[in-house]
C-alpha cells in the first residue's frame, strides 16, 4: 500500500485531531466532550500506525504504542463514565457549567 | 491511480465526514452513532494499511466496548431524543478559528517536511510476531509496559467500582 503518500494519511489524522479539538471546545456536555477526546486519541493512533508502516517497517514499536494507547483509552473512558454517572447522581446534570463546586 | 488509493480517499472522506457530524450534531445519541461510524472507518484504514491485528483490536475495544459504554451512559443520564442547546456563537467562532489556525500550522510543518520512507527488511506484522515481541525481555521487548498497563487496568477497574458504587442509605 505504499502508493498512498504518507502526507495524505497525516492529513487525515491531523484533520481528525482538530475536529476532536473543535468538539472539545464547543461542547459543554461531558459525554460529548469524552467522545471528542476519543476522536483525538484515534487520530494519534493513525499517526503511530502510519509512521511505523512507512518510516520504520523493520520494527514494531508503533504497533505497540497503538495497542497501549487503545488500552489506556479504554481505562480512561471507563473511569470518566463512572465519574460522570456519579456526578449525575449528585447534580442531576452532566453539563460542565453546572459542576462548579471545585472552582477556585 | 490504483484501487487501494481510491479506497483510501473514500475511507478518509468517510472518517472526516462522520467525525465532523459527531462533534456538531445536536442530538447526543446521533453523535454517539456518528462516532461509531468514524471509529469503524479508522478500523478500515488500518485494514488498508495491512495492520490487521490493530484493526481487530480497534473494532473490539472501541466499537464493541467504549461506544457501547458511552451509549449506555447516555441512556442513564440524558433524554436522548432532546436536542442539546446550541453553543454560544462567540465560542463557536473562536473555536473554529483556533482549530483552523492550528490545523494550518501543523499542515505547514507536515507539507514542508520530507519523510524518507524506507522499505528495507520489513517485519511481518502478524499476531505471532506481535505476541513474541510484546512479551520478550530482550531488546525491543515490551514486557515492562505490558505489566504496567495490566496494573493500570486493574487500578482503573477497582477505581470505577469505588466511584460508581452507591453508598448505602443509613438506616434510621
TrEMBL record, chain A:
Domain of life of the organism encoding this protein: Bacteria
Q: How does it sit in the membrane?
A: Multi-pass membrane protein
What name appears for this protein in its UniProt entry?
NADH-quinone oxidoreductase subunit K
Catalytic activity annotation: a quinone + NADH + 5 H(+)(in) = a quinol + NAD(+) + 4 H(+)(out)
On whether Protease is a keyword of this UniProt record, the answer is no
Q: What EC number(s) would the UniProt record show? A: 7.1.1.-
Q: Which Gene3D superfamilies match?
A: 1.10.287.3510
What's this protein's function?
Answer: NDH-1 shuttles electrons from NADH, via FMN and iron-sulfur (Fe-S) centers, to quinones in the respiratory chain. The immediate electron acceptor for the enzyme in this species is believed to be ubiquinone. Couples the redox reaction to proton translocation (for every two electrons transferred, four hydrogen ions are translocated across the cytoplasmic membrane), and thus conserves the redox energy in a proton gradient. NDH-1 shuttles electrons from NADH, via FMN and iron-sulfur (Fe-S) centers, to quinones in the respiratory chain. The immediate electron acceptor for the enzyme in this species is believed to be a menaquinone. Couples the redox reaction to proton translocation (for every two electrons transferred, four hydrogen ions are translocated across the cytoplasmic membrane), and thus conserves the redox energy in a proton gradient.
Alphabetical list of PANTHER family matching this protein: NADH-UBIQUINONE OXIDOREDUCTASE CHAIN 4L, NADH-UBIQUINONE OXIDOREDUCTASE SUBUNIT ND4L
Question: Which InterPro entries does the annotation name?
Answer: NADH_UbQ_OxRdtase_chain4L/K (IPR001133), NUOK/Mnh_C1-like (IPR039428)
Chief localisation class: membrane
- Presence of keyword Membrane: yes
**Subunit structure, per the record?**
NDH-1 is composed of 14 different subunits. Subunits NuoA, H, J, K, L, M, N constitute the membrane sector of the complex.
**Family per similarity comment:** Belongs to the complex I subunit 4L family.
For this UniProt entry, the molecular function terms from Gene Ontology, in alphabetical order, are:
NADH dehydrogenase (quinone) (non-electrogenic) activity; quinone binding
Automatic annotation (TrEMBL), chain B:
Keywords associated with the record: Cell membrane, Membrane, NAD, Quinone, Transmembrane, Transmembrane helix
Recorded catalytic activity of this chain's protein: a quinone + NADH + 5 H(+)(in) = a quinol + NAD(+) + 4 H(+)(out)
What topology in the membrane does the UniProt record assign?
A: Multi-pass membrane protein
The transmembrane segments are 6-24, 31-49, 55-76, 88-110, 142-165
Quote the EC number.
7.1.1.-
GO terms under cellular component: plasma membrane
* A Pfam short name: Oxidored_q3
User: Which InterPro entries does this chain map to?
Assistant: NADH_UbQ/plastoQ_OxRdtase_su6, Nuo/plastoQ_OxRdtase_6_NuoJ
Q: Where in the cell is it found?
A: Cell membrane
Q: What is its main location?
A: membrane
Q: Under the GO molecular function aspect, what terms does this record hold?
A: NADH dehydrogenase (ubiquinone) activity; quinone binding
Enzyme class name: translocase
Q: Which family does it belong to?
A: Belongs to the complex I subunit 6 family.
The function of this protein is: NDH-1 shuttles electrons from NADH, via FMN and iron-sulfur (Fe-S) centers, to quinones in the respiratory chain. Couples the redox reaction to proton translocation (for every two electrons transferred, four hydrogen ions are translocated across the cytoplasmic membrane), and thus conserves the redox energy in a proton gradient.
Query: What name has this protein been given in UniProt?
Result: NADH-quinone oxidoreductase subunit J
Amino acid at each position: 500500500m505504499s502508493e498512498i503518500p504518507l502526507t495524505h494519511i497525516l492529513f487525515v489524522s491531523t484533520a481528525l485531531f482538530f475536529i476532536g479539538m473543535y468538539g472539545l471546545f464547543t461542547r459543554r456536555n461531558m459525554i460529548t466532550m469524552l467522545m471528542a477526546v476519543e476522536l483525538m486519541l484515534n487520530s494519534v493512533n493513525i499517526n503511530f500506525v502510519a509512521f511505523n508502516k512507512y518510516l520504520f517497517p523493520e520494527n514494531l514499536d508503533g504497533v505497540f504504542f497503538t495497542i497501549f494507547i487503545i488500552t489506556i483509552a479504554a481505562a480512561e473512558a471507563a473511569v470518566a463514565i463512572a465519574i460522570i454517572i456519579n456526578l449525575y447522581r449528585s447534580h442531576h446534570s452532566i453539563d460542565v457549567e453546572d459542576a462548579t463546586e471545585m472552582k477556585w | 491511480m490504483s484501487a487501494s488509493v481510491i479506497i483510501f480517499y473514500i475511507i478518509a472522506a468517510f472518517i472526516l465526514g462522520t467525525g465532523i457530524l459527531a462533534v456538531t450534531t445536536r442530538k447526543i445519541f446521533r453523535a454517539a452513532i456518528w462516532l461509531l461510524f468514524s471509529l469503524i472507518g479508522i478500523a478500515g484504514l488500518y485494514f488498508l494499511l495491512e495492520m490487521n491485528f490493530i484493526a481487530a483490536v480497534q473494532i473490539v475495544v472501541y466499537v464493541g466496548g467504549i461506544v457501547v459504554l458511552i451509549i449506555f451512559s447516555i441512556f442513564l443520564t440524558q433524554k436522548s431524543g432532546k436536542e442539546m442547546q446550541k453553543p454560544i456563537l462567540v465560542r463557536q467562532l473562536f473555536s473554529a478559528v483556533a482549530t483552523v489556525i492550528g490545523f494550518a500550522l501543523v499542515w505547514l510543518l507536515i507539507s514542508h517536511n520530507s519523510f524518507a520512507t524506507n522499505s528495507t527488511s520489513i517485519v511481518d506484522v502478524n499476531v505471532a510476531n506481535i505476541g513474541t515481541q510484546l512479551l520478550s525481555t530482550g531488546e525491543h521487548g515490551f514486557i515492562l509496559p505490558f505489566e504496567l498497563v495490566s496494573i493500570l487496568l486493574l487500578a482503573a477497574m477497582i477505581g470505577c467500582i469505588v466511584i460508581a458504587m452507591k453508598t448505602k442509605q443509613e438506616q434510621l
